[in-house]
Amino acid sequence: MRTYKVAIVGTGGIAAVHADNLARTSGRAELVAACDVDQARLDAFADQHGIAGRYLGLTELLAEARPDIVHLCTPPLMHIDQAIECLAAGVHVLSEKPPALSLADFDRLETAQAQGGAQFSCVFQHRFGDASAAARELIGGGGFGRPLVARCDTLWYRPDSYWDLPWRGTWNAEGGGPTMGHGIHQFDLLLHLLGPWQEVTAIASRQARATSTEDLSAALVRFENGAVATIINSLLSPRETSDIRIDCEFATVELSHLYGYATDNWTVTPAPGHEDEVTGAWEAQPLERGSGHSAQFLAMYDALDAGSPLPAGADSARQTLELAAAIYASAFTGTSVRRGGIEPGHPFYGGMDGEGLGTRVLDATAAVPATV
After folding, report:
1. d(CA 144, CA 245)
2. Beta-carbon-side half-sphere exposure of residue 263 (alpha carbons within 13 Å)
3. Domains plus CATH for the chain?
4. How many other CB atoms sit within 10 Å of the CB of residue 345?
5. pLDDT band at residue 143, thresholds of 50, 70 and 90?
6. Alpha carbon of 159 to those of 156, 208, 215, 366, 372: distances in Å?
């Protein structure tokens, strides 16, 4: 097994999560460099995590440190351009969410990957726990049967002070509100478990927070396999929780957690008459490792060792980003949106606010004034 040289770009709060989890990969990763525009913050981060290479610019880091993988922990508006620069230099990318602020920007990755021969992956760490893998294996199969009904809730709380950072809560810096920046982890896991979505009808609102974007969205989604799910993304919920429930023919699968799960956060309830079959199928699965960044890092290294496509790679990350775009498009146009319908020329292809439509709709219906 190879040890990979890793660099972290952006040394804010999430970067510490990456550094701490890299230290838990049993020597599979060597953190060789860090980059930030703030020298004092960069030095403090590098000192804390024992990083020798310190750079104020990504171009210099790529040329001198020559990492195998770059972790992008910068604000969302910077992800896509930085990813393209890394890929063009032949360096693999693991980007924090959202991977891009629009489908148009995201689709630029295809050329960059082909040019440099490197691969892109997005941080969707909830996919990588053992229970997630077990549920994915059993849902739709003989163990649990066909999925029928589901719900996916990201009910979090953020006070007004959360948006004191000027880039937060803006379309041009974050690409949206909780749909893009918070609930995306949970509904990415739902897509991972249920497969491709087909059609969505949604609403989005600015209920209470002084932000330019929505602070709430709710969607009704039909999947290709016929399952129907509700998805709610909120920053207004004092009792914070993240929940997924999937009702299959023979079992209900539930996950309730907040920012990460262990195996005991999952519950499986058999349908009457299917107790032995369902319980046996679940308990036969390996159920030890919870979710988390280190689980995704290890899966990434294993894929690179094997010469395989990276997990949570560009294709599946695009499906998740496309659902976010469709939620906004449906909410702001009042129409249902089908997968594949947001193409070049569509107003929501170039931005989640639909060429300003989202801002106008929210300004007309919001209970609080929009920020500039």
Report:
1. 13
2. 11
3. 4-126+295-312 (3.40.50.720), 127-290+319-365 (3.30.360.10)
4. 7
5. confident
6. 10, 10, 11, 17, 18
Structural contact between residues 36 and 44, judged by C-beta atoms closer than 8 angstroms: no
Edge-to-edge strands of the sheet including 228-234? Answer: 266-270, 251-257, 236-248, 147-157, 228-234, 216-223, 197-205, 337-338
Q: Residue 194 above 50 pLDDT?
A: yes
Specify which residues 338 forms β-bridges with: 199
- The pLDDT of residue 370 is 42
Spatial distance between the Cα atoms of 110 and 347, rounded to a whole number of angstroms: 21
Query: Tens digits of per-residue pLDDT, 245-261?
Result: 999 999 999 999 999 99
Grade residue 211 by pLDDT with cuts at 50, 70 and 90.
Answer: very high
How many CA within 13 A on the CB side of residue 230? 8
Q: CB atoms < 10 A from the CB of 256, how many?
A: 14
CA 51 to chain centroid: 27
pLDDT of residue 142: 82
Amino acid at 313: G
With cut-offs at 50, 70 and 90, classify the pLDDT of residue 366.
low
CB 248 within 8 A of CB 145: yes
The structure tokens 């950072």 sit at 165
Q: What is the length of the chain?
A: 372
- Rounded Cα gap, residues 128 and 315, in angstroms: 17
- Amino acid 367: pLDDT: 52
The Cα–Cα gap between 3 and 305 comes to 10
Contacts 24+ apart (CB under 8 A), 135-140: 135/193, 135/246, 135/253, 135/255, 135/266, 136/192, 136/193, 137/285, 138/251, 138/253, 138/281, 138/282, 138/285, 139/193, 139/194, 139/246, 139/248, 139/253, 140/195, 140/225, 140/248
Q: Is 108 exposed, middle or buried (0-12, 13-18, 19+ CB in 10 A)?
A: middle
Q: Which residue has the tokens 């369902």?
A: 278
Residue 10 identity (one-letter amino acid): G
Mind listing the pLDDT tens digit for each residue in 46-96?
A: 999 999 999 999 999 999 999 999 999 999 999 999 999 999 999 999 999
